[in-house]
## 1
Amino acid sequence: MITASHPRAEGGGLSGLLLVALPVALLIWLVLWPVLQAVVGTVYFPGKGFSLSSYAFFFTDAYSLRNLWLTLWVTALTSALRVAVAMPIALYLRFRSGSIAALVQSLALFPLFVPSVLVAYAFIRVLGPNGIVDTVLVALGLPKLPTPYLTPAGPIIGLVWERLPLTLLLLLSGLGRVSIASVDAARDLGAGGLTIFSRIILPRIQSSIIVALAFNVLGLFSAFTLPYLLGPASPEMMGPYMQRTFSDNADPLNATTQAVITFAFCAAFGLVYVRAIARGRRGPA
Amino acid sequence: MNRREFLMASTVAGLAASTRFAAAATRIDMYTSSDANVSDFYGNVVKPAFEAANPGLELNVVIARPQAALDAVVQRALAALSTKSDPQLDFIEQYEPTLPAGGIEAGLWTDFGKAGLKSYAAVNKLAIQTPYGLPYRGSQVLIAYDTTKLSKDKVPKTFPDLVAWIKANPGEFIYNRPDKGGSGNNFVNRAVHEVSGRDPLKFTVDNYSQATADEVLGKTWALLGDLAPSLYQGGAYTAGNTASLQLLAQGAVTMIPAWSDQTLQAIAKGVLPETTGLVQLTDLALCGGFSQAVIPTNSAHFEGSLKLADFLLSQEMQTAIIEKLGGFPGVDWSNLPQALHDKYADVIPSSIPTFPAGDWTKAVQDGWYRNVAPNISRT
């Protein structure tokens, strides 16, 4: 985790400000300014005054709400699944070394280098109808599986695989703070695996888990390619829905409204992330 | 080679190239914003043949994707028209001649009816919408099916038969989301035609009204919603033309709506098996369209551009459009070899209905998402 530095009480203030000036200026120009434009543009109409009608439409439109719920639901489930899948791998990599561990690590980090379009088409080939899995099952005399392709499960499976490495790296960095000596000490006192995990390890990596979840939520909310290629036509996740509203329906107002609402949810999770970082700096809980 | 050397080398190469072009007799700047299969067709087929047939002329294929890039080039040509300067644009392979607004009135596009093209009389009359565009290639949505599962004589040939077949064979048909590709879109448009008396002329760019839409589209949603439980996975829709072709290729479904050119190309490349059958509905065909080439009247190489237009209508190029591009010819089939005619007899349209862009398409696509897509039964 990021460790607190010890700023000098005086001097270096100006050069420090100059160093951060560029990223801050970029942030204002490319993020905060467009956000402000979007928020203002959806509530204030020159010549007509203020109106919240596009928000009223979104929150009374059953179709839009269903898309928002699906996004929240997929985000929650996928984030939880990613942490659940990454945790055992992280624990294994933290407490084991050697060539097998190195192999596991490279396999687990592999998805980091695969673009999502390739993931989508590979998914269709493997898990799709009459894909490799079906072929193997039929060869073994087993019935075919109902394919997750074009169902809500499709994007979830794809998304879990795609960003697993990031979650794994975050958990690994948290586990770095768990000393092997304390685990050994607990084991010497007769603690079982579950007790060690819940009493020794979990408290030390709490903030890492929160950071991993926050990162996942931010990425998942704006997921586009996999929900678009693997998911059902309806309900849509917010990413494809915004794109369709903007370009197919030629309706920038409602698209921007959807974007502002999505941004509000992401900002809330961003806040959780910032608080977790701040707590991490004060020292692990 | 490091960065500096690379920059120097490319500058030298650029200079050499520009002097070479200056030395060449006439370079025709031809633009396209179509998909890679079309720009490849120009680079690999049209360019060598055209240059061989017209010594002294050079064809410069400029790829201007996305569409907005081409729009900017056209705006430049319109501006050049008023200042009487060189638009640096001689030919566009596909552009909507009614654009930009006021372009035709200002005299931007060449009137092909009066341009004196040798082969203009051969152009398919069904395809000419305006004399300012030259319909030299087309494609249309067809029904593609797996002949190993469905024999040729049992294929539905009318829309009611198709609906009956889909219901009798649940899970064997899929079409893509209408905004994600023309094949699914034109299947939905065909349903709109079906419930409104099979008259495509009822829908035009400027006759959208909420009342008509509510009535016609209400019936369309009822028809498509009724079909949904019999579709693949009880109402799944693929995310595009290619995804539908993939399901057909994997044997997951028996029948899909598909673009003629994409399907013929996929069969030629082995992506789809030889046993893929194609059929067009006979009561009213699925929609399609022709690509219209345009020539700005202020083209600096106007005569050369007209030669290119004539060349594209030649039997050699029209045959290549069918065999290499998988498209429909822009000229009437009677001008092409009989053998070719027989080979594609199943897919030659007697009419090519279209569906208007703009408000109608928006209403159909968004309405489909709200009324048809959610009807899914996962049992």
## 2
Amino acid sequence: MEIEFAPHIEEIKRALDNEIEDERIRTDLIKLLEYRVPLAEAKRSLIRKYGGSEKSSVRKLLDIQIGDRNIEVTGLVLDITKKTITVKNNEKTVFSGIIRDETSARSFTAWEDFGLNIGDTIKVTQAYVRNWQERPEVNFGGRSRVEKLPTPIVVDHEAQQKKLSELRDGEINVHSALTVLKLEPREISTKDGSKKILTGIGADESTKIPFTSWVLFPELAIGNTIEVKNAYVRSFRGVPTLHMNEKSVVKKLDRIIQYKEPHKVMIGDIIEKEGAFDVVIEGNILSIRPGSGLIARCPQCNRVIQKSMCRVHGKVDEKMDMRIKAIIDDGTGALTLVLDAGLTQEICGFTIEDATLVARTAMSQGEVEEEIRRKLLGKMLGARGNMSKGEFGITLVASKVWESPDIIKEKSRELLEKAGYNGKDS
Amino acid sequence: MEKIVDREVAWRVFAHEFNRSNLYISEGSERAPNYIVTPTGVKCNRLFIVGVVTEVENISHDNNLWKARIADPTGVFTLYAGQYQPEAAIFLSELKVPSYVAVVGKARKYEPEEGSVYVSVRPEEINTADEKQRDRWVLDTAERTLERIGIIEDALSSGASGNDLKEFLRKKNINTVLADGAVLAIEHYRNMDKILD
């Protein structure tokens, strides 16, 4: 086996602080290779043997991936909290927080006390990345080396400001601006007793987003346009929601961001996103799914039940309800449209009582589903609501539904123009 | 999270285009869906039609097999409903001709001998419709078809093919399925200029 050893030996030496003779490394390396140890592994084990550490590869926080080992990151500590956790019945103190560089902010966990403080700019080698709630988290362990840098890195906050449409589940240290459209104080119970929070809906020019504020910021008032820093995003029922807490900074802006009512979007476009809040679609009803029509629910937990038996509460006095689950398709994409009893009544023209009567006369709950199928299948409907992706596929829960208006004349004119513009086609 | 298979889009295609499709592909394993690739690059597994039923015929009493012809402004779709589509078969057997119907169906092909391909539709859902629904369908289908013609024209003028073309179309923000279909269509259908007329 003819291998040029010199470059590998050089590489090993570079990773080591102390001087080791070339010849020793060479002998060890050859020995390992005789055992058919792969070259990369051989080098790694020699570096470990001589007490060095492989050089960490430098990563920007945006580029880290779950499973990355031995990386070097540099960033600003935005937040740090001491926590006590139990690992294998032993109590252990760890520090978790947020670190940011110019590309992104990430959560981190330090498994040792590195004496970190908020505002420190640190360079960490031998860090690794683990999966924390489906997101990459930087970990500093026993072998990590943390160096505080004297010159803080400048993170340009203005450059980081994001449109609401760009926010994704799991983002932290979010900087954005929005106008408060709806606001509702709520009282929730936590382990420290009850707590007042604010929930609402905010919007920028093109996107609406629900928000939750764990602090009663006075700037949060209907009509105010606010700038928010250090907020974070969590998905609730598949829809990204902006969260603000005591670490967030909220400032009222002088300018007003005006939200424009949504235009119709093509289904093919929105299903490529992870979720969408308050969008309008239009398409044909292509299938009425099983479980549509008249259904019975448990009065206690609202689960759909059969024959008055709830799988949690046993025999109960069932409560009748009505809904439609239908496939809506506009030729670019398809999703499941869900209509509640009120919307079902609006679009089909019968109440729960009417439906109960239909079912009783036909002696089958399925008859109501059939009736819905006869009424809606093939029809073009418009709907507005929130789209999410989940284990049941892509779903839009409607807040409004309507039969598409007759726009045949306008549409044909528009199309002729388009075709004429293109010249020879059609 | 395990990704569930997305529902196949129901494409809007005119009968004229559908009927002159003769490229049939099936991806990989036995249970993978089959597609008919149309000249404008629709990788079509499911389609949606609103048209006029002009003829219903019971072509096999034994299997209760019904055949229907559904006309749109450009041509006629052929529909077969047999024992495995009992609801559609009953619907057709009771239907007065002519009448408007809306159909969701799967694209099928029949190739009695090498080179002669007959395409048809196997209904999944069928319902009565009205004139307005039909008109709207014609417009929507025209709109989608024009979009696809635009993509094919772009693709042809780019001069690229295969993966390069796919990449080119992706950069123009064209949906993966359509880009895929366009590449297949351009490889398969010769003298595209004539077809596009």
